[in-house]
């Protein structure tokens, strides 16, 4: 499937800003099943230079500065990507045990991070209900993915980025970001390497299929390292394994590593942010 993705962030300031330094992660990356055909960033006020680099995780980072007085900042990304279906055979499983070998470069995704701390006893007990000696690793992960979908309530008014994963577990509600963080915390409590994936969902579902939550918005899901197989994606918000309807933007240890736009500014204390996302199928 080919998609056109438009993602615009608009900041309106309470008073004019004289200087800002920003980092944007709004240009998608290539993956094993995704090819970026084109991608461009448009910034208003117009600036002369945008420097692009890759971060620690291989994400595309666009850096820019504006050193003129402005009351509004618009950063828009328009990309075309081709996403191929992924085929994961859940029957071709690896028996789980707490001694599974994790490659050195992957161990970064086993460690606690800003929004996914480890050491929560409730989360550890929650995890032990899925992962038992002799049970398949993919089977256990998929059971966790399915339970979050069926038993947790999607509630846009419940949380923000600072909401602790322990509260998400106890209240059984949140949004895609919360469910991804909870799933990461659950897996990492048992030493399983996993990463946070940010991206998008196809806006219009195929005929006969239900509309997925978070359409026309940024989305988040989880990718888990399975020894002998590699990285396998799971979407706990929708209870499925992502395939050609999920467009990957970036990944990291948690949301803090993939914030779409962040930076420093001078001359303002308050601002309002509006986000506009549109995903259109080109097939």
SSE arrangement:
Layout: E1 2-17, E2 19-24, E3 34-44, E4 51-54, E5 60-66, E6 70-83, H1 121-128, H2 137-151, E7 153-154, H3 165-171, E8 173-174, H4 176-188, E9 194-201, E10 218-226, E11 230-234, E12 246-252, E13 261-266, E14 271-281
Parallel strand pairs: 7-8
Antiparallel strand pairs: 1-6, 1-14, 2-5, 2-13, 3-6, 4-5, 9-10, 9-12, 10-11
Which characteristics define this entry?
C8orf32 fold; four-stranded antiparallel beta sheet; 15% helix; Immunoglobulin-like; alpha+beta; 283 residues
Q: Which value, in Å, is the CA radius of gyration? A: 19 Å
Count of helix runs:
4
Mean of pLDDT: 92
Question: Structural class of the secondary structure composition?
Answer: alpha+beta
Helix content: 10-25%
- The level-1 CATH class of the largest domain: Alpha Beta
Domain count: 2
Q: Mind explaining what this structure looks like?
A:
There is one protein chain. The protein has 283 residues and is an alpha+beta fold. It has two domains: 106 residues, Immunoglobulin-like (Sandwich), CATH 2.60.40.2250; 154 residues, Roll (C8orf32 fold), CATH 3.10.620. Helices cover 15% and strands 38% of the residues. The strands form four sheets. A four-stranded antiparallel sheet has the order 3-6-1-14, with no helix packed on it. Helix 1 crosses helix 4 and helix 3 packs across helix 4. The protein is globular, with a radius of gyration of 19 Å.
């Amino acid at each position: 499937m080919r998609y056109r993705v438009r993602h615009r962030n608009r900041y309106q300031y309470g008073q004019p800003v004289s200087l800002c330094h920003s980092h944007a992660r709004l240009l998608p990356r290539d993956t094993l099943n995704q090819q970026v055909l084109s991608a461009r960033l448009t910034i208003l006020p117009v600036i002369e230079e945008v420097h692009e680099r890759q971060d620690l995780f291989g994400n595309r980072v666009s850096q820019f500065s504006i050193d003129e007085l402005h009351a509004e900042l618009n950063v828009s990304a328009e990309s075309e990507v081709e996403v191929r279906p992924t085929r994961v055979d859940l029957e071709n499983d690896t028996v789980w045990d707490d001694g599974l070998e994790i490659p050195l470069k992957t161990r970064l995704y086993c460690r606690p991070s800003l929004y996914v701390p480890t050491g929560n006893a409730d989360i550890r007990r929650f995890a032990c209900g899925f992962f038992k000696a002799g049970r398949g690793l993919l089977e256990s992960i998929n059971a966790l993915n399915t339970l979050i979908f069926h038993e947790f309530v999607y509630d846009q008014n419940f949380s923000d980025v600072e909401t602790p994963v322990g509260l998400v577990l106890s209240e059984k509600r949140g949004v895609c970001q919360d469910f991804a963080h909870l799933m990461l915390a659950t897996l990492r409590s048992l030493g399983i390497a996993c990463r946070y994936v940010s991206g998008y969902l196809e806006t219009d579902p195929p005929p006969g299929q239900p509309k997925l939550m978070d359409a026309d918005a940024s989305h988040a899901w989880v990718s888990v390292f399975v020894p002998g197989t590699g990285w396998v994606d799971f979407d706990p918000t929708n209870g499925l394994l992502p395939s050609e309807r999920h467009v990957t933007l970036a990944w990291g240890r948690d949301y803090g590593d993939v914030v779409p736009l962040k930076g420093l500014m001078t001359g303002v204390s308050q601002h309002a942010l509006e986000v506009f996302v549109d995903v259109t199928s080109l097939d």
